[in-house]
Design brief:
Helix content is 38%, strand content 19%. The protein has 15 helices and 17 strands.
């Protein structure tokens, strides 16, 4: 059962508590082989200026042609957040001069975006995964990215790399519904997860595939909205949270000192966790927006929308509910659906016949620990879902105890062998032979008369000692359930 989450995050100032109001403008690079208006490649890491068409370089007479796949991916993203997809939208020119913008303008969408209002549901508090807050999304519009200035290639000059110029972006604009760094972090985490499930963005924040402009203002609880600042191009979830915390505290200090907040654009310094002024904040009229005369409006027909809708995968919230219905705990279901690769691996494990509950515990425990130790992701796991299902089946049918299964798993990680073959070759099969176990129990009791006397004198905690000694004597191969039953009988 889900409940509404409310934030108690406040900044304590000299004049009392202040509330933080947060909105995010997320720039997500659309997954496509070609740019938004040209056929140039989009691969990350290419040599500078090797993926630049005449359109990207703004050569005279070159006309943009919209990339259908980029539009399709943006529409699918809108559908995934339950947003209104506009059948009619239009491109505008956003005019400004910058060295990495060859055209002298950016083709974007201001007045008639491709996607309208939607929402993202998040759980800001990990300790309360059923406490959900809905964050509104105002719009998603499609635009082209600018190039990149490189300041570290020459002591006195800056170089321009236009490989990124013209790459398709979705700008996903939230409403100012977030009230704490944790909520902003949860929103960005969930949005990134949805984009990766849909396949519309690879989500590689370290490569700049997702960047966030962070809008922050503060006010007394219940008061009118304050003046906001915008911190540009923050490229990690942790940095977004740090930027919010610093900027909110800075604004409170400014206001309590009797000064006013300037509407401005700021930059975040990840080394110090602070923000600094970049420039005064422009308004829409400063960019002299007008409809792009080289591009016709986008008009989407029902067949195109239907294809987009039918191509959507099972999304995180639906998948999480399916796991819960199958017997996975709420916490485990959240962990397993957070990353699309994990969910795919777990689905393959279930498809191989593993029971959902025990399988989820094993994946989030044993498998994750092993992968962390090896320093690889689940997609590179040395153990396949099919082999893991075989291992779990041996535990379920009593062939292996939990401790023996761990031994078998370690061998599987090293060799890739089938678990049944490992059990056979190394003699690791669990035994439920009552006569053999009773004989070992008799030896254990005989070797520990002092503990036996204490137990029979009322020290019940020593029962675990006898279980451990018995399991040790049988090299961990005894069935724990049988050991417990026979021990209780022997101890009277």
């Amino acid at each position: 059962m889900m409940t509404d989450a409310t934030s108690s995050y406040r900044i304590q100032g000299a004049t009392g508590e202040w509330e933080v109001v947060i909105g995010l403008e997320v720039h997500a690079q659309i997954t496509s082989n070609a740019k938004l208006f040209s056929g140039a490649a989009t691969a990350f890491g290419a040599e500078p200026n090797t993926q630049v068409s005449l359109v990207d370089a703004a050569m005279p007479g070159m006309l943009p042609v919209p990339n259908r796949e980029c539009i399709r991916q943006a529409v699918r993203t809108g559908m995934a957040i339950d947003a209104q997809v506009n059948r009619w939208s239009r491109f505008d020119r956003k005019n400004y001069f910058y060295a990495d913008l060859p055209q002298g303008y950016q083709i974007s969408q201001l007045y008639h975006p491709l996607v309208g209002e939607g929402h993202v549901d998040v759980a800001p508090d990990e300790k309360q995964p059923d406490a959900i807050k809905r964050i509104g999304v105002e719009r998603i519009h499609v635009e082209q990215d600018a190039g990149k200035l490189m300041h570290d290639q020459h002591p006195t000059r800056s170089y321009v790399d236009l490989n990124r110029s013209g790459v398709a972006l979705m700008e996903i604009v939230s409403r100012p519904d977030m009230r704490s760094p944790a909520e902003a972090g949860a929103y960005l985490t969930k949005l990134r997860s949805i984009l990766r499930y849909v396949g519309s963005c690879d989500g590689n924040m370290d490569q700049g595939s997702i960047r966030a402009d962070v809008n922050v203002s503060v006010r007394k609880p219940g008061a009118e909205l304050g003046t906001r600042t915008e911190t540009k191009n923050v490229n990690s979830i942790r940095f977004v949270m740090q930027a919010i915390e610093h900027e909110a505290k800075r604004q409170v200090e400014v206001l309590e000192a009797g000064r006013r907040i300037e509407q401005e654009t700021r930059l975040f310094n990840p080394d110090t966790g602070t923000t600094r002024t970049m420039r005064s904040k422009e308004d829409a009229h400063d960019y002299r927006y007008f409809p792009d005369p080289d591009l016709l409006p986008l008009e989407l027909d029902e067949a195109f929308l239907a294809e987009c809708r039918e191509s959507l995968p099972e999304l995180p919230d639906v998948k999480r509910q399916r796991y819960e219905d199958a017997g996975v705990t709420l916490y485990n279901a959240g962990v397993l659906t957070a990353e699309v690769e994990t969910a795919r691996w777990f689905d393959a494990l279930l498809g191989a016949g593993a029971p959902a509950g025990p399988a989820s515990n094993w994946v989030t425990g044993e498998l994750f620990a092993a992968l962390n130790r090896l320093g690889v992701g689940i997609a590179e796991s040395p153990v396949t879902p099919a082999r893991a299902a075989e291992l779990l089946a041996l535990v379920a049918d009593g062939t292996l105890s939990g401790s023996l299964a761990k031994q078998v798993f370690e061998v599987m990680l090293e060799t890739g062998e089938e678990p049944a073959a490992i059990v056979e070759a190394r003699g690791l099969k669990q035994t439920s032979d009552t006569a053999a176990i009773e004989a070992v129990i008799a030896e254990v009791l005989a070797k520990n008369p002092g503990q036996l006397e204490q137990y029979r004198g009322g020290k019940d905690a020593l029962f675990g000692f006898f279980v451990g000694q018995t399991m040790k004597a049988m090299a961990g191969k005894a069935n724990p359930g049988v050991v417990n039953e026979l021990l209780r009988r022997a101890l009277g």
